[in-house]
Amino acid sequence: MSEQTKLNWQQVRWQCKAGDLGFETTDDIEPMDVIVGQENALEALQFAIECDAYGQNVYVRGLSGTGRMSMVSRILRDVKPAANNRKEHSYVANFDQPDRPRLISLPAGQGIKFKDMMEQLSSFIADDLQKSMESEQLLKARDKAQKAHQDKAEKLTKPFEKDLASAGFAMLNVNGPQGQQTIIAPVLDEQVIDPPTWQQKVQAGELDEARQKEIMDQQQAYSKKLEELGRKIAEINEAGSQAIKAIYESHVSSKIDQKLAQFGKQFSDEQVADFLVDVKGDVLDQYFYQNQKGYDPHERYAVNLLVHHEDHKETPVLVERVPSMQNLLGSIESKWGDNGPVMADHMSIVGGSLLRADGGFLVLDARDLLAEPGAWKTLIRTIKNELLEIVPAEMSWPFGQPALKPEPIPVSIRVILLGDSGVYYFLDNQDPDFPELFKVLADFDSVIERNKRGFANYAGIIAKIIKEDGLLPFDAAGVARLIEHGARVCSQGDKLTAKFSRVADLAREASYLAHKAGKKLAIGSDVKSAVMRTKKRAGLSSRKFQERLNDGTINLDTSGHTVGQINGLAVIHAGPIVYGFPSRITTTIGPGRAGVIDIEGMAGKSGSIHTKGFQILGGLLRHMLPLDHPLTFSASIAFEQSYGGIDGDSASGAEFCCLISALTNLPINQGFSMTGAIDQHGRVQAIGGVNEKIEGFFDTCHQRGLTGEQGVIIPQANAAELMLRDDVQLACKEGLFSIHAVSHITEAMEVLMGQPAGVLIDGVYAENTIMDKAMRMAKKYWKNTQAKV
């Protein structure tokens, strides 16, 4: 076993010394209200906020929990960008086209005045105007006009009636098929004879034929004069009605003009002036030319103020946490009558967050936005055209009723989109408008430097969390353990995680445990207990695995030496918690031409990355066995007792060592497990989850009894990331467990097989080395194959 690759116990866990933090408890620390380690993202975001150019919307890229939302909110609060020509948008009725409400956009603060003015005008029209039409002066003018027209009518009717009476006739009202009508009837013996009486006299022979003919001829002549007189009287009556209507219309027009003159002084906007002219025309139309049934000035002339700015100098900042199309765009509320749905009006229009953010900033989560049907299209269309159409073409009124088509609203919005890298690249590839509209990328790093500044930042953030959540204060040791956990979560050398949500959750649980124990202060042991509790809650799968190992259900050796068998390492995820566990890999070999067979791949259980790693294994084999003849053996490699899919290339190093063991018939020490990817030149490359993998194998060995000859082989590139548990570090210190960090696959073979691997010089390895035996066995397989041909 090579001692050169063995790490000492201090190297397997980085420790933060509480004495170096410079405080006793978090009460001594000022809570930090700044963003830690995100200077580049801060600069990009500040530029986007202060730059007014088109398309300078922001995509804030980074993992959740790194403080993106806090950073955006703080910058917008601190920078306080000036409000840019903020408007208050209103919809009013369109009297000519009721389905197309009119938009009136006024400077901030003017919209509410316009709304109040129209309410006063509506009250005047509904109450005062109606009362003024009953004034004594107006009634006198109406009576005078009526008498004048009656006099004209009498000048026509009196001569006719006098002439009619002298001829022995009179006008008589009778009921006919078309209702009551006036006819000319003869007067006999001072009695007006109606048609039935006339017929009786004719039948009784009281009138001879000559007298009958004379009376009927005179009757027809006067009937024609009566028709002519009727037409003239109708014209006089119509003229009289028009004159009276003109009196009232002039009165109403004058009253409205007086009122509008008072209101119009408050506004210089042409939109308001044009609308008031139309209102006057509509009032006259409703009073004198339309059926007034259902006419309510308060409804008809109401102003639907969609957005009102209390402080027109402050830039709006809106966070939309449910970015559905309706919440972004707004809606048109349904209206129902006695017989079902009826046409909505301008008062049914409701604005959404895109309108409320006009002149300011709208913060959205990219994944939430893309999950809402139509929301992304709505957002892009709005910021691209700088127009908000509250009812898009794809939305239609139910039951076949025509939909309102409000005028588009001009808007100016700066969108800040929060998302991860996957969503960013998806949008960049799929939507050609995205790079043109989101030109600013604010990248959040998931790590910060592991140095004194980083420690101070952590302490300040923890103090802030304590203050905001009302937690117990932490002593320096407790903060040190939280910092160590930040290093463990980060799993990068000389770095700490910037995902403070993970650290915050741990601090909350540690405070809970300390409070439950009656302490006034959370200490390091509370943090350790909190870490153990979080792992235990998600550790059922790991415990079940260990149980199956102990009862023999899963076969795994942690001692002894076996040819063609090695312990690989894998991980499972339970939310943010990761667990490692060992997996037995075996290899068999014999003469043939099939090459190296991946049983997982043949069974369809291999992921693409695992398949790639396996193919690299074949390339490395050719590189390390530079023979002058083909490799003519057949080998099969399998993960034993694996019934699910396998992916990742971290087992490719172990697979290669297992293959060499089978080829050379050299046994592998089963007390070791190995993780690490390889390249085609034999270099061992970094993998993920190194701490969890080591601890998973340690737990297995610990339950079976540590022998002092057990350990894990990891890539040298992962050595700086080690943050193993205290019990693992203690076992390393006491010599019961070891960690070997290797940079080349030959170093791993020497640890596993206890022999020199050999160095290739001029195509030859030193005699009796592992690779020399591999060369000789490969040649033997070739000869055996040749002999059979």
Automatic annotation (TrEMBL):
Recorded GO MF terms: peptidase activity
PROSITE patterns for this protein: LON_PROTEOLYTIC
An individual GO BP term: proteolysis
Keyword Calcium recorded: no
InterPro entries: AAA_32 (IPR041699), Lon-like_helical (IPR046844), Lon_proteolytic (IPR008269), Lon_Prtase (IPR027065), LonB_AAA-LID (IPR046843), P-loop_NTPase (IPR027417), Ribosomal_Su5_D2-typ_SF (IPR020568), Ribsml_uS5_D2-typ_fold_subgr (IPR014721)
Family: Belongs to the peptidase S16 family.
Stated name of the protein: endopeptidase La
Natural source organism: Marinicella sediminis
